[in-house]
Design a protein that fits this description.
Elements lengths: L9 E5 L5 H13 L15 E5 L8 H6 L1 E5 L6 E5 H7 L1 H12 L6 H6 L1 E3 L1
Parallel strand pairs: 1-2, 2-5
Antiparallel strand pairs: 3-4
Amino acid sequence: MMTIETQPAAITFDASGKSLGRLASMTAQYLQGKHLVTYSPNKDEGVSVTVKNLSLVRIAASKFTGKRYYTHTNYPGNMRIATLKEKWAKDPQKLFVKMVGGMLPKNKLRKMRLKRLLFA
């Protein structure tokens, strides 16, 4: 039986003009290696994804002001609400990593895959 060794691929996305959600979805699929013929859900393919021009991504105005993120500290009255606009102004890369992480399977490979999400 012949074994084939492949090198981990490096993929670059230009985010300018693309929708934020679609870009996150494509990034999650490529990090999992679903574009490869050798894809298997239980192994890590080692694909790294680089995102360029994240600040030029397209976000709908209604989503920018209307989308809310909720966190609660489990203390009474400590519900923290932040809009997409506030989180984007603070750190867009951290928000994008959180979005992509939510689209990846919740298993042991998730942290390793998110480490290979790079920004240029």
